[in-house]
Amino acid sequence: MEVIILQPTVTTTTTPQQPKKREYKVQALKDLLENAPPTPPDFDPDQAKWEYLKEKHNL
């Protein structure tokens, strides 16, 4: 099984807010998500899926 996790990007506003701390039940998942780089604001999930499938199936 392959899993792709997309995290929302953090946008800046005029009133600073502290990001809400998430709680994870699985330590490995916590480590993965807390250390992963944020998703770029111009990221297109459909394009990423298509690129992945083209590469996987040698299209």
General description of the model:
This protein is mostly helical. It is built from two helices and no strands. It has helices at 27-35, 45-56. The longest helix is centred in the last third of the chain and has 12 residues, at 45-56. It starts with 26 loop residues before the first helix and ends with a helix.
Shape estimate: flat
Radius of gyration: 15 Å
Number of strands: 0
Q: Distance N terminus to C terminus?
A: 21 Å
Helical segment count: 2
Helical content (DSSP H or I, runs of 4+): 25-40%
Average pLDDT rating: 77
Helix vs. strand class: mainly alpha
Biggest sheet, open or closed, and with what strands and sense? none
Question: SSE layout and pairings?
Answer:
Blueprint: H1 27-35, H2 45-56
Task: Summarize it.
With 59 residues, the protein is mainly alpha-helical. It has helices at 27-35, 45-56.
Which features characterize this protein?
single chain; 59 residues; mainly alpha; 2 helices; 36% helix
